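User: Hey, my collaborator sent me this sequence without any context and asked if I could get a structure. I don't really work with proteins. Can you help?
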Amino acid sequence: MKYARRPRNAEIPTASMADIAFLLIIYFMLTTVFAATRGLEFGLPEPEDQQKPVKFEEAIYIKVDPGGLLVDGRFRDLQGLSGYVAQKMAQNPSKPIIVHASPASPYRSVMDVLDELRQIERRLQANPKLGPTYHMGVSIPTQAEVAEWERLLGRKLG
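Assistant: No problem. I've predicted the 3D structure and written it out in structure-token form, which is a compact way to encode the shape of the chain:
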């Protein structure tokens, strides 16, 4: 005698799956050790030991505007920038250079200035007194730094 087979339902019951997941989450939360004082351990240098603040007058200030380059308060072209910066860096190779790009200035102008500074750095690296490991200190100021300089000088830069 043949029995009629009932079709089997291929469904997995998941009614209690959420309860099991919730209990596992609670179990792992309770058994995990939380350490609030541990983290990445590395030593940072003290700010006053590592760097001394650079006064605005000690640096070469280059402002890139849509109208041209303003280098230490005087308008210059790219060739004039090269001669001026090379002369100043020959006197004091550790002199920092600040490149302040106006938001309205073309990107190409800023890149031309940075490329020219890189060429000056390569010429200075050929100097046997400085050597090939010499690097110029070129920095781009934040808006807060520019505002602080303008406040200290009592005038707008550029």
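In plain terms: Residues 67-153 form one domain. You can pass these tokens on to your collaborator as they are.
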